[in-house]
Amino acid sequence: MPVNMPLRHELKFFISPKQYYLLSNALDLVLQRDPNGDENNEYHIRSLYFDTVFDDALHDKLSGVQNRDKYRIRIYNLTDKVIKLECKTKVGSLISKRSLSIPRDLCEQLIACDPTGLETTRSGLLSDVYREMTTRLLHPVVIVDYVREAYLHPAEEVRITFDKQLRTGLNSIDLFNPDVPTVPPFDNGEIILEIKYNRVMPPYIRDLINTYCGDAQQSAISKYTWCRRYEGKDY
Question: For residue 33, which phi and psi values (nearest 5 degrees)?
């Protein structure tokens, strides 16, 4: 992990539609809506996750390895207007994320597992991707689709998101194809509540969450892992 990378808390919960409805309406009264959302405060996220030839990211997550990385390319609303190369790092119970906007041609090059030219990059993130592609055969493995609704607060950079309609692209890596067949990995359309903040969650926000979702159990939810459940692997 790069020196001085900022680390944040991240809490995840499965919640019911009723809990979502009540908490979402309460947050909408006191927090800021995500400026990227539409009139319903929603936007579509599609991520293409990468893993090594030995599925290290998958097995590290399933084994509960404390320090680990996940690489992905992310687009929004199924367009190439904004393309993000990201590495999400887990350090114990804390998380951090490095993100870099990349052009479509570089995106296509990475999807093709072609690290040509990255050996001279000045970007630490691209340098890490080059290393992983050349030494551990990092390659794209699964598309993860969902709809996100997000609320923000400047104190402690609180970000609360509801991730809905999770779907997996199975074995496809056709990131920009809006017609990629997808299926839900959940049986009951579960909604994922995620809460991120720097050091301490503001008490009144914690009280709101406890009021409407106090009985929800915190869980180490991984959309990436769930979206690989149909591959027939032994896990």
Answer: -75, 150
Kindly give the pairing relationship between strand 94-101 and strand 139-153: unpaired
Q: Which residue has the tokens 């991730």?
A: 163
Q: What is the pTM of this model?
A: 0.94
Q: Which tens digits make up the pLDDT trace of 103-121?
A: 999 999 999 999 999 999 9
Cβ-proximal residues to 87 (8 Å cutoff; 6+ apart), any chain: 69, 70, 71, 72, 97, 98, 125, 128, 129
R_g (Cα) of the chain, nearest Å:
18
Q: Is 134 helix (H, G, I), strand (E, B) or coil?
A: helix
Averaged pLDDT, 193-209 = 95
What proportions of the chain, in percent to the nearest 5, are helix, strand and coil? Answer: 25, 35, 40
Do residues 150 and 34 lie in contact, with contact meaning Cβ atoms separated by under 8 Å? yes
Handedness of CA 120, 125, 131, 132 (dihedral sign): negative
- Give CA–CA dist 196/10, Å, rounded: 5
Structure tokens at 131: 């290393």
Residues 11 and 218: beta-carbon distance below 8 Å: yes
